[in-house]
TrEMBL record:
Transmembrane segments: none annotated. It comes from the Bacteria. Residues 31-141 form the DUF4440 domain. Signal peptide: none annotated. This is Nuclear transport factor 2 family protein.
């Protein structure tokens, strides 16, 4: 299933809080915790945790790298290009969570990437969008848009 139209529609909503859940809601806390959990694994090259959070049918859109639809290819790319080379930080206060009724949620915000290989390289915030699907008692990442 492709959710790109939903993602793009939400991505162009003006950042005014329209449609997003309250930051003190259970959904916001859950998605915020999941974002932290995923990116802790990302920053420490914990590919096992990352793999456990990716859906088998994941689609990953990267403005510079193209589209990936094979989970193992995404993990291989992270291992080759990210592990011990890049650290991600969420821009404080930028996370938005939008509920998708009877499905899950869209998380979007701004983050920065610190180049561990070039400590003086400037890092500017970039936008990300992640679709989280709620399946039974667990959450999984089904779509990602990463823009730089």
């Amino acid at each position: 299933m492709n959710y790109l139209k939903i993602i793009l529609l939400i991505a162009f909503i003006p950042i005014t809080g329209v449609g997003q859940v309250a930051q003190d809601s259970e959904l916001f806390k859950t998605i915020s915790d999941l974002d932290q959990h995923y990116f802790d694994a990302y920053n420490t090259c914990d590919l096992k945790t990352q793999a456990s959070l990716y859906a088998e049918d994941i689609t990953f859109y990267h403005d510079k790298g193209g589209v990936s639809t094979v989970k193992q290819d995404i993990l291989n790319s992270i291992e080759k290009n990210i592990c011990n080379k890049v650290t991600r930080t969420l821009v404080t206060g930028s996370l938005e969570v939008h509920e998708i009724k009877n499905f899950g949620a869209v998380a979007m915000g701004l983050h920065t990437f610190f180049n561990n290989q070039e400590p003086n390289a400037p890092s500017k915030p970039s936008k990300f969008i992640m679709i989280w699907r709620h399946v039974d008692t667990r959450w999984e990442i089904v779509e990602v848009i990463s823009l730089h």
